[in-house]
Write a structure and sequence with these properties.
By secondary structure, the protein is α+β, with helices and mostly antiparallel strands. The chain has 4 helices and 8 strands. Helix 1 runs antiparallel to helix 2. 29% of the residues are buried.
């Protein structure tokens, strides 16, 4: 059963020095990738030209993957910026053994991993948030939705969350470490009248840069 408490005394997660350090690591990784992957892509194509046709069997897959990661890097930079805005508005809340699963909820596709958090305006209700997949979701996706009995899944038996699950938020393992941005898609249940957010909740979301109903 999910139990909730505040792991830090900070009114906003950003006031916690370890949070700022974790975000700097996230941002530095995004910036480094913005430089590294295009360089790898160009280098692979140059090597194919210089080394001849035989090198294509080795370097072409490298070039294609590097090109794919190059296009992803802008998404990582945008996610890092949104993560910072959320952390500067919402406090951390620790959730022990939060409900999670794979598929089998409205809006989830086969293989989609999700977490459930209490509705901030109705504590007896829960809000499901799907982890939208990309390369950096792999660590979380391998551990969530499978219970907490193994050594690997026990690593996420406690999750820190900063945000509003009806709109967007940031998850981390205690520390915090491994910051990951969660968000509801525009066509999800969170965009309907199923969850009615209070004016205060809507104002917090706007301050965090989340697009919410007027």
């Amino acid at each position: 059963m999910d139990t909730v408490h505040h792991p830090t005394s900070s009114a906003e997660a950003w006031e916690h020095s370890a949070t700022q350090s974790a975000w700097k690591k996230l941002f530095t990784s995004a910036v480094a990738g913005q430089v590294l992957w295009p360089a790898v892509c160009v280098g692979a194509f140059v090597l194919m030209i210089l080394a001849g046709r035989w090198s294509m069997w080795v370097m072409l897959p490298v070039a294609v993957y590097a090109l794919y990661r190059s296009f992803l890097q802008r998404q990582y930079l945008v996610a890092a910026a949104q993560t910072r805005r959320l952390l500067k508005v919402y406090p951390w809340r620790s959730h022990k053994t939060p409900a999670s699963g794979i598929g089998q909820i409205p809006g989830a596709k086969l293989g989609d991993v999700w977490l459930a958090f209490p509705n901030p305006d109705q504590s007896d209700d829960v809000v499901h948030v799907i982890l939208h997949g990309h390369a950096r979701s792999a660590w979380w996706r391998r551990r969530l939705g499978r219970g907490y009995g193994s050594e690997q899944t026990a690593q996420v038996a406690e999750i820190w969350f900063a945000g509003d699950p009806r709109f967007a938020g940031v998850i981390a393992v205690p520390g915090p470490k491994r910051l990951f941005l969660l968000y509801q898609l525009a066509d999800s249940h969170a965009s309907t009248d199923e969850w009615v957010a209070s004016p205060e909740a809507l104002e917090l979301a706007r301050r965090a840069g989340v697009r919410v109903p007027s």
